[in-house]
Amino acid sequence: MPTPQISKKKLKAIVFTDIADFTKLSSQDEQKALDLLQTQNEIVKPIVEKHKGEWLKEIGDGLLLSFDSSLDSVRCSIEIQESLRDVEDLNLRIGIHQGDIFINDDDVIGDDVNVASRIEPFAAIGGIAISHKVQADISSTPEYTTKYIGQPKLKGVSQEVKVYCITSHGLPETKLSDVSAKLEKKTNWFKYAVSVAAFVALLTYYFMPKEKEVPSIGILMMENLGIEDNNFWSRGITEDLIVKVAGAGLIRVAPMREILGIDPAVKLEEIAKKLRVKYLLTSSMHKKEEGFDLRCQLIEAGSGVSQYSNKWSLSNDEAPSIVVLLAENILKSLNVVSKSANAAVPTANIDAYEFYLKGKYRFEMSENIEDTEIARGLLRKAIGLDGNLIPARNVLGWTYHRTGKYDDAKEIYEEALNLANGIDDTLWISKLLNNIGIIYAKKSDYVKALEYYTRSLEMKEVVDDKRGIGRTLNNIGNIYRGKGHYVKAMDFYARSLEIKEKIDEKRNIRVALNNIGICLLIKGEYEGALDYFTRSLDIYKELGDKWDIEWVLKEIGTTYFLSGNFDKAIDPLEKSISRTKEIGLEEKELLEPIVYLFLSYKYAGRKYNLKEIYVLLEKTEQIGYEVNYHLFKLLEENIYLETAYTQVKERANKFKPDVRAIFFGYSIPKAIIEEWENIPK
What integer pLDDT is reported at residue 650 of this predicted model? Predict the structure, then answer.
């Protein structure tokens, strides 16, 4: 019995070439066509050998070549096109893709081979078309520039492929008009949403299938099997993996904050219950001198059944690909298709990647400004080694963002955004647009903030980043709230809440609940506000979460106070103040709840000491009109009422006339104006 042939699987850069108009030439002059093939082989073969490529086979007038790296394949293809420019009728189109090929004794097969051949027609005559995988590999090399063509539906290819053309080295660009018919058409739903809304709703009601259960996963902290100094690897990979998977679309991923509170000794079923997820990913990493040993297992926690497991031995150079590798396998196992425009590894420079993870780790563990400066130094080293390392720039921007250096943060975010635009990385573009929007909001530039948030939202909707969509909707709501459009703000908060509830993001659900409650509170709808704040507090209790609970307690106490229920206001205000002092928040955060607490004491007939109020007043630079008004009530000093009156007028002047009229009708602004105007002057 003959021994069966065994296919060998290899990761290669695959090059497919084709001579333009060769069929027409063959029909007109067969001998000339044959001579042209011979000329092609004589010119091309030495170039392929020079770049250490493998001449796999000839397919009619086409060539199938392979290389160990994308860079080698691109360099070879450019030299081929340069060498053939002056050869009459020898006009090549070249397609390049990176992926797995299967080699046996007499053939080369695989889906990725088909990709290379299918994207070749998207090259201009004399040009080179490449897939997103190749584009990602060469993007860190400045000498190569590319142009995004589109995401065609490739015949006989199961995977989604984004196509680019190389525009450097004098290569001709692909004209979109020449290939538009081959590209997958996408409807501009933003443009037509209003006109078709009723029709879509009707179709949805009658014909859409019932919603499937949203996949949910907890990606547990990767276990470090090596020395403790390598903890930055396991933590950094875990965190980036959570972000990567969460950005894939309709999937709920337990956030890193929840993962950090998990005891690995607890049974997986209990962990899944605590995280409110169906699946758990366990993984381990052993960093050795020559590389990494990785293991992972995806488990359905309820049944304990393994959905997927694998192990890899990776070289040091492959370390930046770990997150992409794990994410692809997780999503495939859960039948989740990511719409993210770029699945590329962040860098090909292992040293840059290591400095990035070390810097991020140091920043996240920082306890003082000295730690933050060390983190910045590590991140700058990463960027110095690879200026295109977007994640490092993003974290560096955040180190300035969190410490209130907004101009520095914005500059860094903008640099990262330019890089993301250059490689058409939709997910990173959306994130950075959102970050810049936050900076403008912090600086009270609401017009610019809204512009960036809106652009971010559009990009997030393209890739179906549900978590990101929910957060950006919330941020837009904040802008409208800042502009006095409380009804419009609540609309965005409600849309954000709907998405967060769909993917069961408890911690972000409570944020939306709080924000809606605040709008209702400003409008004087105390019963409704209290309902939302109470629902938010219930989530804190459900999660056993002590972080940020002081805020919702303050809002509940404030609501009771403003509604005249002073006895009920006291307990949540006292608890909020105690918690604020316990965690060491800035003293300015204490002034508002203490003013409301002391007024509640006053109206409830209890004793209080005003000394603490005066101490806080000396340390607080900015006081809002609400607090100034109630300081007037507490201290009975007209200067606070006058200040509040001035602030209300200044704030109202920033609003449009219709919004201004509504604002003056709210209970506190109305009371401030009436009391000040009735004081004898």
Answer: 92
* 469 closest CA partner among 514, 508, 516: 508
Residues pairing with 184 in the sheet: none
φ, ψ dihedrals at 100, nearest 5°: -90, 135
Residue 332 tokens read as 């495939």
DSSP 3-state of 465: coil
Cβ atoms 560, 569 nearer than 8 A: yes
Residue-by-residue DSSP string for 233-259: HHHHHHHHHHHHHHTTSS-EE--HHHH
Using CA atoms, how far apart are residues 241 and 244, in angstroms rounded to an integer? Answer: 5
d(CA 154, CA 122): 11
User: Quick one: tokens of 242?
Assistant: 């959570």
Distances (CA, A) of 71 to 14, 49, 120, 135: 11, 15, 18, 10
Contact call for residues 93 and 127 (beta carbons, < 8 A): yes
**Using an 8 Å Cβ cutoff, are 559 and 533 in contact?**
yes
pLDDT score of 368: 80
In the chain, CATH 3.40.50.10610 covers 216-333
- How far, in Å, CA of 152 to CA of 170, rounded? 25
Q: Name 212's Cβ contacts closer than 8 Å, sequence gap at least 6.
A: none
CA distance linking residue 306 with residue 584, whole number of Å: 44
CB count in 10 Å sphere of residue 102: 16
d(Cα 151, Cα 57) in Å, to the nearest integer? 28
Strand 62-67 and strand 8-19: pairing?
A: antiparallel
How many other CB atoms sit within 10 Å of the CB of residue 342?
A: 20
| H-helix or E-strand spanning residue 165 | strand 163-166
pLDDT of residue 260: 85
- Joined together, the tokens standing for residue 155 give 């015949």
Helices (H), 247-309: 256-259, 268-275
Cα(275)–Cα(98) distance, rounded to whole angstroms?
Answer: 37
CA distance 156 to 333: 22
Whether 167 and 160 have beta carbons less than 8 Å apart is answered as no
β-partners of residue 62 are 59
CATH numeric code, 216-333: 3.40.50.10610
Pick the CATH number of 8-182 from 3.40.50.970, 2.60.120.10, 3.30.70.1230, 3.30.390.10: 3.30.70.1230
In this structure, which amino acid lies at residue 615?
Answer: V
Return the CA Rg of the chain: 31
pLDDT averaged over 10-residue windows placed end to end, the chain, 681 residues:
49 91 79 88 94 88 90 94 90 91 65 85 93 84 79 79 88 74 45 37 42 81 91 92 85 86 86 90 92 92 89 89 90 81 74 94 86 94 94 94 89 95 88 94 90 92 85 93 88 91 84 92 90 90 74 92 93 90 73 93 91 88 90 93 94 85 88 90 67
Nearest to 495 by CA among 516, 524, 521, 481: 516
- Rounded CA separation 334/298 (Å): 9
CA distance 322 to 292: 10
Which ranges in the chain are annotated with CATH 3.30.70.1230?
Answer: 8-182
C-beta separation of 378 from 358 below 8 A: yes
- For the chain, give the number of residues: 681
Interacting residues of 328 by C-beta distance below 8 A, sequence separation 6+: 343
- State phi, psi for 617 to the nearest 5 degrees: -60, -35
- Token pair listed for 196: 């078709």
CB-CB contact of 277 with 254 (8 Å)? yes
The SS3 assignment for 453 reads helix
